Amino acid sequence: MRTRLTVLAFSTLPVTAPAMGQEREPLLLNEAHRQIVLAEMRGMLEGVQGIIGALSKADMETVAKLSTELGMGGPKPPMELRRRLPDEFRKMGFQVHTAFDELAASARAGEDTPRLLNRLQHALSGCTACHRKFQITHADY
Ligand code: HEC
Predict the structure, then answer these.
(1) 86 vs 15, 46, 92, CA distance in Å?
(2) Which atom of ligand 1 is nearest to the CA of 91?
(3) What is the pTM of this model?
(4) Which atom of ligand 1 is nearest to the CA of 45?
(5) Which CATH class is domain 24-138?
(6) pLDDT tier for residue 2 given thresholds of 50, 70 and 90
(7) Measured from the CA of 27, which atom of ligand 1 is nearest?
């Protein structure tokens, strides 16, 4: 009994770290759909990079243009993939795209850089919230 408790005590630390990833909800996708989702993600990160670059030069036209591309009017994933996405995932995606539309509108309205950065930060909190919640898990369909 004593040995067992000791083993448990020592095993706690290394076990909790990798287990953290497993707390996320599985987003069940086949390989083709996984690739589409990840490509969209990389595009969003590139968009954010461009927005920050444009903000640093106070180039509000580019801020508005890039933010619009990340907004609700951006390219939609194929219907077959959208059907697979849980409601919560879609809702979180919707919130992020809407936040970018608001950023675009604010840049066009001439808001100053600190406020626009604050909006960008708000949009990014939607990215990180979803990353904390979901993990793509392979599915055959
Ligand atoms: C609705 C959910 C959701 C939102 C919103 C979201 N992501 Fe993701 N993202 C994911 C999931 C799920 C993965 C895959 C993570 C995994 O399986 O471990 C991912 C992966 C990524 C990756 C890795 C891509 C690769 O090729 O491996 C990047 C980069 C990324 N997201 C950037 C972003 C950025 C930037 C935003 C916001 C502008 C964002 N994501 C918003 C769900 C989301």
Answers:
(1) 29, 25, 10
(2) 1
(3) 0.88
(4) 35
(5) mainly alpha
(6) low
(7) 12
Cβ burial 5-28 (10 Å sphere, 16+ → b, else e): eeeeeeeeeeeeeeeeeeeeeebb
Strands 25-29 and 134-138: parallel
Q: What confidence category does residue 18 fall into, taking pLDDT thresholds of 50, 70 and 90?
A: very low
Question: What is the pLDDT at residue 11?
Answer: 46
Whether 96 has a pLDDT exceeding 70, the answer reads: yes
* Ligand 1 pocket residue status of 104, Cβ below 6 Å: no
Instruction: State which of 81, 100, 121, 127 you would mutate to test the pocket of ligand 1, scoring each by most atoms of that ligand within 8 A of its C-beta.
Output: 127
Q: pLDDT tens-digit profile of 32-69?
A: 999 999 999 999 999 999 999 999 999 999 999 999 99
Instruction: Tell me the DSSP string of 31-99.
Output: HHHHHHHHHHHHHHHHHHHHHHHHHHTT-HHHHHHHHHHTSTTSPPPPHHHHTTS-HHHHHHHHHHHHH
Q: Whose CA is nearest to atom 28 of ligand 1?
A: 41
**Hey, where are the domains in the chain?**
24-138
